[in-house]
Amino acid sequence: MADIVISDLSKMYGGKRVLDRVAMHIVDGEFIAVLGPSGCGKTTLLRLLAGFETPDEGTIQLGGRVVSSREANVPPEKRNIGIVFQNYALWPHMSVADNVGYALKIAGVNSQERLQRSREALSVVGMENLAERAPSDLSGGQRQRVALARCLAAKPSVMLLDEPLANLDVHLRAAMENEFVRFHRHTGATMVYITHDQSEAMALADRIAVIDRGRLVQFDRPRDLYREPQSEMVARFIGNGQVLPVRDVRPEAEAAIVSIFGKDHRVRARRSEQVRSSAKLSVHTSAMRLAQPGDDGFAGKVERVIYRGNHSQVDFIATADPALQLTLHAPADVAIPADDTIQVCIRDGWVIPAAA
Ligand SMILES: Nc1ncnc2c1ncn2[C@@H]1O[C@H](COP(=O)(O)OP(=O)(O)OP(=O)(O)O)[C@@H](O)[C@H]1O
């Protein structure tokens, strides 16, 4: 069993609380992403999980055993954890196969088993034909695959991946995303994937932990994060979400009537939503459109229109609130001059629980 239980975990650096009472339970075999803006504490969490750092408060349990606490720290090599960093750190003077088998050699695995496990691992990542190559003769994606195979050969029950695609170009990233999914299916390992790229996290993870300034602000399935953000930070961070001020929240079962710039709309809300005079609404770009004749919309002034191939991106400012910059997607062939006034219709929104 490789479930991970993190309880009230805090880490200080020079008096600053970099991780603040983080608590989460990662289920055995789950693929989770840790997502958050630069400097929020993602790598610190990974270093604590790996055993490179000791917490100031709280504990980490791996498979039911406390491995990190203020009093005791099981060293990294005793945690059965594999780690893949963004710089692949392959030994340049060793072949691909030797790179993959090196850790096994150090661990005293005999040469026959070493060969067998290295071969298997390389075949999982589709690199068995390049076993004798030197790392310098591989592409970035291939090197990252070798780094994955090296991890795999050690048969870890938990894999930590720290922005493993950060150095790859956009096409390779897509190919490697598939590779990670395949890898996860094959190994059944518990995967913890650190990234600041929310589309990568959405594509890969069963659940995403969003961290903001050292705090875990939401830990949910991608769909729930997207549709039901619990705070304004998550609403803005996930899927280019936009946030609108609304007034006069009147809850109905799992919905609410809210006033958007003086007009009533029915939107989604949590079951326990309260009557309140003001709130914030999470609205995705795809949930806004140009109003049709007869629609009840609000007015906006167009700032610019960008042709994006399958749609046109319309950036505009709400006439009733000039500080509010918004974006909607219109048909690709739409012809709207800048400074024009448009009417905008909202088709779907979510009343953010923790924002007034
Ligand atoms: N060894 C250290 N000593 C002092 N401060 C540190 C140390 N390591 C990290 N920090 C600080 O802790 C905070 C969190 O850093 P961390 O590297 O965990 O963030 P991150 O979310 O991984 O950021 P990024 O996405 O930019 O890599 C930052 O303010 C960083 O400057």
UniProtKB/TrEMBL annotation:
Listed transmembrane segments = none
Gene Ontology terms, MF aspect: ATP binding
**Which Pfam families does the record cross-reference, listed alphabetically?**
ABC_tran
Q: Which residues form the signal peptide?
A: none
Transport found in the keyword field? yes
Q: Which family does it belong to?
A: Belongs to the ABC transporter superfamily.
Name the UniProt record assigns to this protein: ABC transporter ATP-binding protein
Give the classification, highest ranks. Answer: Bacteria, Pseudomonadati, Pseudomonadota, Alphaproteobacteria, Hyphomicrobiales
